Amino acid sequence: MAETNVISAQPNSSRKKIRGWVIKILLVLLLIIAFVVYWKYYNAYSNGDRIGKDLKISTRGNIFKTCEGYFTEGCRDVVSNPVTFSFSVTDEEVEKKLLQYQLDPNACVKLTYVEYRNTLFWRGDSKYIIIAAEELSK
Hints:
Elements (H helix, E strand, L loop, with lengths): L1 H41 L1 E17 L5 E8 L10 E6 L2 H11 L6 E8 L11 E8 L3
């Protein structure tokens, strides 16, 4: 009788060990996935400023309406191939400022942005998110 109790107790202890290892492996995988998601979508890759004019702002999207825009880099009137800078705006106050600046076609605007590695559908189509905007003196 004592031998049968010892034999039946051993599979339970090995099951507990296996279950413990499986839980530890799943927790490590969960931490790795959480780090990768943070790194790719929420960690800022770079930040900086761009200066330009000829601002165009629009709201688009089927379910998540996002504010998207672009402008021509540089404030001088140069007849060449202009470089455009596409961006998204998540802050409503910054969006209101940009909509005001859009009304003046000669306004020279300085945009401060944060660049992320990838986009999120509720944050916009661009990796560049505008966090501040100011009109430069004419």
